[in-house]
Each structure stands twice: as C-alpha cells, then as structure tokens.
C-alpha cells in the first residue's frame, strides 16, 4: 500500500493524514513524565511500560 503522508521529522509514513497528525505530536508534546528519571512520553501506556524498568 501507498503511504502518501510522510513525517518531516523522521522516516515514518502513513495512510491517513490524521495518523500523521497524531504521530507528529510525538516529536513535540510529551505530557507524561517519569517520576524516577527525566524521560517523558506521548502516551500514558509508554510511561507505564517504561516504569517497569525502574522496578
């Protein structure tokens, strides 16, 4: 399948413009911060998965 929507910050490509817009937030907005280190995440799930590295 053709993925016409390309991210200007990385090599990711998408089928729909909405998916590109959602992905673009990963390069700018990271509201979920780890309380144990300086890492920040775009999705709460990624923070939860990362938190396991501290246990």
What percentage of amino acids are in beta strands? 5-15%
Structural class: alpha+beta
Helix content: 25-40%
The radius of gyration over CA amounts to 14 Å
Distance between the termini: 41 Å
In terms of quaternary structure, the protein is single chain
Tags for this entry?
55 residues; 15% strand; elongated; zinc
Task: Give a written overview of the molecule.
- This protein has 55 residues and is of the alpha+beta class.
- The chain contains 2 helices and 4 strands, in the order E-E-H-E-E-H.
- It has helices spanning 17-24, 44-51; strands at 5-6, 13-14, 32-33, 40-41.
- The strands form 2 sheets. It has a two-stranded antiparallel ribbon. A two-stranded antiparallel sheet has the order 3-4.
- The mean pLDDT is 93.
Quick structural summary:
This protein is of the alpha+beta class and 55 residues long.
How are the SSEs ordered, and which strands pair?
Layout: E1 5-6, E2 13-14, H1 17-24, E3 32-33, E4 40-41, H2 44-51
Antiparallel strand pairs: 1-2, 3-4
């Amino acid at each position: 399948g053709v993925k016409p929507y390309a991210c200007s910050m990385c090599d990711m490509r998408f089928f729909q413009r909405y998916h590109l817009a959602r992905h673009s937030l990963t390069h700018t907005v990271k509201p979920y911060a780890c309380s144990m280190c300086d890492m920040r995440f775009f999705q709460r799930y990624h923070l939860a998965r990362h938190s396991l590295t501290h246990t």
